[in-house]
Write a structure and sequence with these properties.
The chain has eleven helices and 13 strands. It has a domain at 2-173 and 212-240 and 276-293: NAD(P)-binding Rossmann-like Domain (Rossmann fold), CATH 3.40.50. The protein is of the alpha/beta class. The radius of gyration is 19 Å and the shape is globular. The strands form four sheets. A six-stranded parallel β-sheet has the order 2-1-3-4-5-10, with helices on both faces. A three-stranded mixed β-sheet has the order 11-8-13. Strands 6-9 form a two-stranded parallel ribbon. Helix 5 (136-156) links the parallel strand 4 and strand 5 (160-165). It binds guanosine-5'-diphosphate. Residues 70-72, 134-135, 167, 180-182, 185-186, 203-205, 209, 211, 246, 269-273 line the site of guanosine-5'-diphosphate. InterPro entries: Epimerase_deHydtase, GDP_fucose/colitose_synth, NAD(P)-bd_dom_sf. It catalyses: GDP-beta-L-fucose + NADP(+) = GDP-4-dehydro-alpha-D-rhamnose + NADPH + H(+). The active site is at residue 138.
Length: 317
């Protein structure tokens, strides 16, 4: 019998990018899922979080809600990103403690890692140096959730875990120009260029940075597996362990979308961290699992979805 049958789970951010895929998998496995919406529960307020958990009486809370985005939104909204994620994380965890929730799963980010280390980032590296300037406001707030779980375990025997997600892409991502991460941004630019017969597409930076890209449906599967199996306060990386340069990514998206024009590399736009790849040995051992979707297949699925849902996708912030 499935672990999830009749389990009650609150997924914050369950209507968002990663969260909605997590909700789908939980429901397929027989869980009863409750997604708090902002109009009913403002998770920036401790009392709203507590009311939500006392009403829904979940066995587990997966905290996926966040205000985040790609390299550009971190430059134009750094304060909002900092404040909202810090306060929301602190209050959601405190509300879980007050409501006596059995298990808390915090969804974190690879931006929490030191920004200037060499090699793939292992869980033990989390405190080995300063964060990259482009994401320190976001990365630190997420890292504080892990610190809070650690402190609450010591004092209250709180059962909290922290998952560190790499760069994601897929259906239901933000395709908004200001907010999007690189994959969604490129998909929108190249698809629009083919629809409008444009001769040139602008891409940012030098193309040299290297990122790891995980298909969101694989990521959601990893989160659900970890929520079932992993009960340690120390973090767990979720990724592919495979690096791809931005230049290679651009060529792939260009090829799949069928754009035949020129590229303009705008080097006035930032590169960000030069290399960001996770070491996924612990993930593979703990979850006994590897992400099944390779980058080309994931991009093909995403581009197909984007073409079929362009209007709705463009309207999401
Ligand atoms: P990061 O992983 O936090 O740095 O965030 P992004 O996913 O936004 O950016 C990753 C890399 O892609 C950076 O080096 C960007 O300069 C590069 N990039 C190239 N073209 C674009 C684009 O059109 N939009 C975005 N967001 N990034 C781009």
């Amino acid at each position: 019998m499935s672990f999830w049958r009749d389990k009650r789970v609150v997924v914050t951010g369950g209507a968002g990018f990663v969260g909605s895929h997590v909700v789908d998998i939980l429901k397929q496995n027989g869980a009863e899922v409750f997604v708090p919406r902002k109009r009913d529960f403002d998770l920036m307020k401790l009392e709203d979080g507590l009311r939500c958990f006392l009403d829904a009486k979940p066995d587990m809370v997966i905290h996926g809600a966040a205000y985040y985005g790609g390299i550009w939104i971190n430059q134009v909204h750094p304060g909002k990103i900092y404040y909202e994620n810090l306060i929301m994380g602190a209050n959601v965890i405190e509300a879980c403690r007050l409501a006596g929730i059995e298990k808390f799963v915090g969804v974190g980010t690879a931006c929490s890692y030191p920004g200037y280390l060499e090699g793939n980032l292992s869980e033990e590296n989390l405190w080995d140096g300063p964060l990259h300037d482009s994401v320190r406001n976001y990365g630190l707030t997420k890292k504080m959730m892990q610190v809070q779980c650690w402190a609450y375990k010591k004092q209250y025997d709180f059962n909290g875990t922290h998952l560190i997600l790499t760069n994601l892409y897929g259906p239901l991502d933000s395709y908004n120009e200001q907010r999007s991460h690189v994959v969604a941004a490129l998909i929108r630019k190249f698809v629009e260029a083919t629809l409008e017969d444009k001769l040139e597409v602008e891409v940012w930076g030098t193309g040299k940075p290297v990122r790891e890209f995980l298909f969101v449906e694989d990521c959601a599967e990893a989160i659900v597996r970890a929520a079932e199996i992993y009960n340690d306060v120390e973090p767990l990386n979720i990724g592919t362990g495979i690096g791809t340069s931005i230049r290679e990514l651009v060529e792939l998206v260009q090829d799949i979308s069928g754009f035949r024009g020129e590229l303009h590399w705008n080097t006035d736009k930032p590169d960000g961290q030069m290399v960001k790849i996770l070491n996924v040995n612990k993930m593979q051992g703990t979850l006994n699992w590897k992400p099944p979707t390779d980058l080309r297949t994931g991009l093909e699925k995403t581009i197909k979805w984007y073409r079929e849902n362009k209007q709705e996708a463009d309207a999401r912030f």
